[in-house]
Amino acid sequence: MKTELIKGDITKIPADAIINAANSSLLGGGGVDGAIHRAGGKQILEECIQIRNRQGKCKTGQAVVTSAGNLPAKYVIHTVGPVWNGEEDKSSKLLEDCYKNSLQLAESLGIKTIAFPDISTGIYKFPKELAGKIAVETVQNFQSDSIEKVIFVCFDDDNEKIYKKLLD
Ligand code: ADP
């Protein structure tokens, strides 16, 4: 499994799946979540509502999948990152779950390329260095038959610097 770093907007990435840092309502929000729903159109929200009607809210650390509407990707995997509250062990485990469960879902769909944003490092205030370390380690430790490439999409300069160092 190769890893790559891209600085930019995840809604523009033509990967098989892009990951959304969603909130538990699955009904959209700010940050990358808002950008994905805006660029992807109402198809994604409609599928999110269907999932909610079936299973209720999405718990922190869990992941669900929809199609990608008007985006160049094929699927959007929505995962709910932890809100940072200073409980490092608990939050780290939940962030690791986000990456693991998203990868597992991608694997079950036979996906080859997947793009992650820096989950929880925006509105949810997870410390960026720690979040980057968890993201890279979890991806690098994941054993996969189908996934060939994981792209880390950094939107801000801090994360770009952090990921550059981690991936070198
Ligand atoms: P969270 O609530 O999980 O913190 P945010 O969307 O606020 O989610 O932030 C997560 C990360 O996504 C942040 O590092 C933010 O800079 C980044 N981000 C915001 N918009 C985009 C985008 N269009 N593409 C990729 N990353 C984005």
From TrEMBL:
Residue span(s) of domain Macro: 1-168
Gene3D superfamilies named among the record's database cross-references: Leucine Aminopeptidase, subunit E, domain 1
Domain of life: Bacteria
One Pfam family, short name: Macro
InterPro entries: Macro_dom, Macro_dom-like
SMART domains listed in its UniProt record: A1pp
NCBIfam families assigned to the protein according to its UniProt record, in alphabetical order: PRK00431.1-6
Name of the protein in its database record: O-acetyl-ADP-ribose deacetylase
Organism: Chryseobacterium herbae
Source lineage: Bacteria, Pseudomonadati, Bacteroidota, Flavobacteriia, Flavobacteriales
